[in-house]
Amino acid sequence: MPAFHGPVIELRGGLPYGIALGLDYPLALAAAVLGNMVPVPFIILYIRHIFHWLQKQNPWWNERIEALERKAHLKGRLVRKYRTLGLCVLVVIPLPGTGAWTGALVAAVLDMRLKDAVPTIFLGVCIASAIMTVVTYGAIHIL
After folding, report:
1. How far apart are the first and last CA of the chain?
2. Is residue 6 within 8 Å of residue 17, measured between CB atoms?
3. Which of 49, 61, 88, 136 could be a cystine partner for 54, CB 3.0 to 4.6 Å?
4. Residue 97: CB partners within 8 Å, gap ≥ 6?
5. What is the pLDDT of residues 29-48, one digit of tens each?
6. How far apart are alpha carbons 94 and 109 in whole angstroms?
């Protein structure tokens, strides 16, 4: 078995990467899910404080942070309309700019409660892991 090098990135990249490294599926899945979920509560709790601190340190950050918040608000339309179901769908959708970390940013910007957002994001990550498992193993068998 190869040495453990990861995957500690978003699940959509982490799971196929772990399997490509030759990790057993349960280990690759656990690492990908953990790597996806560990930052989530910290993003929800602290990202707005970090943004505020960065903006106070250097005005260079203002435009970049405002752009991130605008994107979060745009992606948050689905979440505002459907609340936790919308957040789950945002996390599950396999497109750039979606996923657990984006979901956590949206939850923070929309002031969602941690007790509502984290389990919802985790459910989305579990569904996404099932999708990525099918895609990864399907691609392996096709090639």
Report:
1. 22
2. yes
3. 61
4. 71, 75
5. 998 899 899 999 999 999 99
6. 21
Please name the residue ranges forming H helices in 83-113.
84-92, 100-109
What's the number of domains the chain is made of? 1
Peptide bond into 7 cis (omega under 30): yes
The model's pTM is 0.84
Instruction: Quote the pLDDT of residue 143.
Output: 58
Residue 78 in domain: yes
Domain, as residue range, for 74: 39-131
Identity (one letter) of the amino acid at 16? P
Identify which has the larger pLDDT, 38 or 75.
38
User: In whole angstroms, what is the distance from residue 112 CA to residue 104 CA?
Assistant: 9
